[in-house]
Amino acid sequence: MSAMNFMEKLLDGVEVEWKALGEIAIKVSSGGTPKTGVAEYYDGQIPWLRTQEVNFGEIWDTGVKITDAGLNSSSAKWIPENCIIIAMYGATVGKIGINKIPMTTNQACANIQFDEKTINYRYVFHFLSSKYEYIKSLGEGSQTNINAGIVKKLQIPIPCPENPEKSLEIQAEIVRILDAFTELTTELTTELTARKKQYNYYRDKLLSFEEGEVEWKTLGEIGSFLRGKRFVKTDMTSEGIPCIHYGELYTHYGIWASDSKSFISEKLASKLRVANPGDVIIVAAGETIEDIGNASAWLGKDNVVIHDACFSYKSKLNPRYVSYFLRTKICKQQIKKHISSGKISAINEKGLSKILIPVPSLAEQARIVDILDKFNALTNSLTEGLPREIELHKKQYEYYRDQLLSFPKAEALTEALA
Q1: Predicted TM-score of the model (pTM)
Q2: Which residues does 279 contact at the CB level (< 8 Å), separation at least 6?
Q3: How far apart are CA 67 and CA 35, in angstroms?
Q4: Could you tell me where the beta strands, DSSP code E, fall in 162-272?
Q5: pLDDT at residue 418 in the model
Q6: 56, pLDDT greater than 60
Q7: DSSP strand E in 256-396: where?
Q8: In 3D, which of 50, 112, 45 has the Cα closest to residue 85?
Q9: CA–CA gap between residue 171 and residue 157 (Å, rounded)
Q10: What is the layout of strands, in order, in the sheet containing 27-29?
């Protein structure tokens, strides 16, 4: 039986009513960010979610933890498990997640709580996931952000609204089918997460040298920095001069890159600054200290324009070696000492120049890079290993999801926001 025939049989003539998300939710809220650079607010026990961790799946942990002091000093607040979370700002805007443990979030997350006696939260999750491109298109401003008002107006199809028990049965059956498709993906993703933790462990171990084994030097001693100049996402195009916006280093680039995902006009590029082939591009600003220091070695044939929240770093070290080291725990601990506080976390050239890096021979740098490149490819590449298998299962799920959730009167989704 096709997905469409199955839906016709499942609905069997029952009414489908479109309702605003704000109407069917118990609560729609957002969180807050404890002041960055205040040590007593971070490294606590309270899970604190950032939008880059929202990616169409279940969320069982967070990369950053805050303290009670951080919670009490900010707008961050606890949300119960099984809320639907929509990323409202930045590169992940429109992405959906489900928190499987109680946690707090930053202000860029819309947290939606439901009464499970009337709405199946996983049904809402699958439906909103199918509307990702549409939700993302609602963004406004240079950062294409959405807000809680937009989130509350999103329309959800409710089958058999006059009979809550029957409605939940229909929702549950759709969820059962779609969850079956995502179950294997979840298992594979869990395995991938474990491999990434293993990879991070060995990366840090390979780049941790015994005292006296190698010489440690500051980045400023052995290289030079150049800060980029400001441009916004709306300046970026599909052709022209290659460019890298700092947000892309979180979402689109790995340890190294040989081509750009975005471009900028030649006229505007002439007023900006570039990284040269062999330079390392370093993120200098972000929502938390975990964002700062993420780096990609630029190995393209041509120069690439860089954003003002980035530095290019030029040295005689192996650029991939530098990029790997900048992501280690020992480097992050150094960076933390030089962060300036404000709306966002940031580090300047003076701070970066003080970061100590181990300097083994070029042959040893190449050996370490070779090991980590192989491990990195297995863990992260979309063309081999687990990530490719996960991607194939996701595409299968998306096909059946879109078929199952193509309800009549879908135009209501657009009309409500017109």
Answers
A1: 0.64
A2: 297, 298, 312, 313, 314, 319
A3: 12
A4: 215-218, 223-227, 236-237, 241-244, 256-257, 262-264
A5: 47
A6: yes
A7: 256-257, 262-264, 273-275, 280-283, 285-286, 295-298, 304-306, 310-315, 345-346, 356-359
A8: 112
A9: 10
A10: 27-29, 109-113, 84-87, 96-99, 57-59
